[in-house]
Design a protein that fits this description.
The complex is a heterodimer. By secondary structure, chain A is mostly helical. Chain A has twelve helices and no strands. Classes of the chains: A mainly alpha, B alpha/beta. Chain A: Its main location: membrane.
Chain lengths: 265, 310
């Protein structure tokens, strides 16, 4: 009788994480309009504000290109960072502590890894659509010097995973959402200011320079800037990719452990 | 009594959290088609047991087989055939009522078209058909609970697990939930529920175990348990005096057993009205007299010396 019961298995989804992604997309369908507007508006304003506004005071440009052309790759990477972290802080915290969505998912055939992968897939979707919008706007404004700029898309995807996975782990482990605001104050904002987005890292004192090199953002900034300008990056491409991949893989393992500790009690 | 195949088998099942033992070696067997209950006060180990059966909490000891499978090794395959209604609703308040069902159905590998059809059918069943396209946020507690029950049915489960299905609902909403669950039971769906409401257990359960402090203290049908541990009728007496104790001694001869509670005395008797007459004959004048049927509350009181709901 036991054998007969065991045989009666139901077909499960082949890639369960895609079903989780589908859930997140259904929710996003309600809010995408506001999001899409800001994905176009934000790069337009930043390019105009920083590139043209600030750039007009920088006559010599940076390294032989105009400030606008220099800054656009960095702004793209920092946009990817902002979206990735926004989508893996409060949404993760809320799904665990407020609406308890993950607990509902956990009662279905989904495994902890599926729930995590589905959420990260949605983060990736948000980052990629934002980055593509950014490229469209800056391309139309003539700020992209090279067709290699399309390579910023996979770089942004890797950066997104490199920051979203450890952020997921952090958001899943804290017990109060005031810790999330701390993350922005003490990690995201300093990283955005000092990881080479607005000025070359080389203008920092040596000690701070190494802090900048340690951030995942600087590696993506260097790659994106090189792609947009059509030049070789400051550091080795393989080195950058490997460094970001280590953040992504480490973050994944950490996030899965933290989420399992929350959901498997 | 029930002849269905065993769907849940637990032997010596244990759940520990650090030094605390929440479930302390219980034996349970639930068969196909029955409505099985775990009755007990808060902290008795009911929810921990439910989470182990729901394959979201690995047992710390003992044997557990669900649908013939091992919950640790075959978790996803077992969960594919369970329907779970948790104690706290975890619906998505931002989605519509219908979307909550269709997105959830997708986790089970159900095709979109089937998911939509099933959502319509289930929303009619839980009487939310007219709210299908409204958001979940403004729904009342009872409606949300019914929606959670509908969601638990979306994969046509072999077993439906309900953890305190009516806790926190007002009486009217509670009756509506009971009525739907009773309908499910009539359709032959296997129900496993926890509750600390004796009337819920009496109405819905074919068989139940009474849990206290992580152990099973009694098992049987509600009627059999009442016959074994209580009497057909119970007389509740309230005396105006500060302490009820003083009167208890005089009542001993009246029935099979007397229980003294802080605010009243319970006398267990075959015939309530006859006992009330005897109380008067003894020259006692309680401020308040109530004759009622023996219930699971009395069973629990007898077994543990405590009341179910404080």
């Amino acid at each position: 009788m036991t054998a007969q019961l065991t045989r009666d298995r139901r077909p499960l989804p082949r890639v369960p994480a895609l079903r989780v992604l589908e859930y997140h997309l259904v929710g996003y369908r309600r809010t995408w309009r506001a999001g899409a507007f800001s994905s176009f508006l934000l790069p337009t304003l930043t390019v105009l504000g920083f590139g043209l506004g600030v750039g007009s005071y920088i006559d010599q440009g940076v390294g032989g290109v105009s400030y606008l052309e220099w800054i656009v790759g960095g702004l793209l990477a920092s946009t990817a960072l902002q979206v990735a972290i926004a989508e893996s802080t409060w949404p993760v915290f809320g799904n665990l502590q407020w609406q308890k969505i993950y607990f509902g998912q956990r009662s279905s055939p989904l495994r902890v890894g599926d729930i995590l992968a589905g959420h990260l897939a949605f983060v990736l979707f948000r980052v990629l659509t934002s980055v593509i919008a950014f490229l469209l706007v800056t391309g139309v404004l003539g700020a992209l010097r090279s067709p290699w700029a399309v390579l910023t898309v996979p770089v942004a995807a890797l950066l997104a995973l490199a920051v979203a996975a450890p952020t997921f782990a952090y958001a899943a482990s804290v017990d109060s959402d005031s810790w999330l605001a701390m993350l922005f104050r003490f990690a995201v904002i300093p990283m955005t200011l000092f990881a080479g987005v607005f000025f070359p890292v080389e203008s920092l004192p040596l000690a701070l320079r190494w802090l900048a090199y340690a951030t995942p953002l600087w590696h993506a900034v260097d790659l994106c800037r090189a792609a947009v300008l059509g030049v070789a990056p400051y550091w080795s491409v393989a080195g950058h990719l490997a460094y970001l991949a280590v953040w992504a893989a480490g973050g994944w393992l950490l996030a899965r452990r933290v989420l399992a500790r929350r959901l498997v009690v | 009594m029930t002849t269905g195949r065993p769907l849940i088998q637990a032997q010596g099942l244990v759940k520990r959290f650090g030094d605390f033992t929440a479930v302390d070696g219980i034996d349970v067997e639930v068969r196909a088609g029955e409505a099985f209950g775990f009755l007990g006060p808060n902290g008795a180990g009911k929810s921990s047991t439910m989470r182990m059966i729901g394959c979201t909490s690995p047992p710390s000891g003992g044997e557990l087989r669900i649908l013939g499978m091992d919950p640790v090794r075959d978790g996803p395959a077992i969960r594919a055939r369970l329907g779970v209604c948790p104690q706290l609703d975890n619906l998505d308040p931002e989605l519509t009522v219908r979307e909550n069902l269709t997105t959830y159905a997708r986790y089970f590998g159900i095709p979109r078209r089937v998911a939509r059809a099933r959502a319509t059918e289930l929303l009619d069943f839980v009487q939310l058909g007219d709210r299908a396209d409204s958001k979940v946020e403004p729904l009342s507690g009872g409606m949300k609970r019914r929606l959670t029950i509908a969601r638990a049915l979306v994969n046509e489960p072999d077993i439906v697990l309900l953890d305190e299905p009516t806790t926190g609902l007002d009486p009217q909403a509670r009756h509506l939930v009971w009525e739907r669950l009773f309908r499910l039971k009539q359709q032959g769906v296997t129900l496993v529920l926890t509750t600390h409401y004796m009337d819920e257990a009496e109405q819905l359960c074919d068989r139940l175990v009474v849990m206290d402090g992580g152990r099973i203290v009694a098992e049987g049908s509600p009627r059999a348990l009442i016959e074994r541990h209580a009497t057909r009728e119970v007389v509740e007496l309230r005396f105006a005096a500060e302490s009820q104790e003083a009167f208890a001694g005089k009542l001993d001869a009246l029935g099979e057993r007397v229980e003294v509670l802080p605010d009243r005395i319970l006398v267990y008797v075959p015939d309530g009205d006859a006992a009330v007459a005897e109380v008067a004959a003894l020259g006692l004048h309680p401020a308040n007299v109530l004759v009622r049927r023996g219930s699971l509350e009395d069973v629990f009181l007898h077994l543990t010396g405590r009341t179910l709901v404080d």
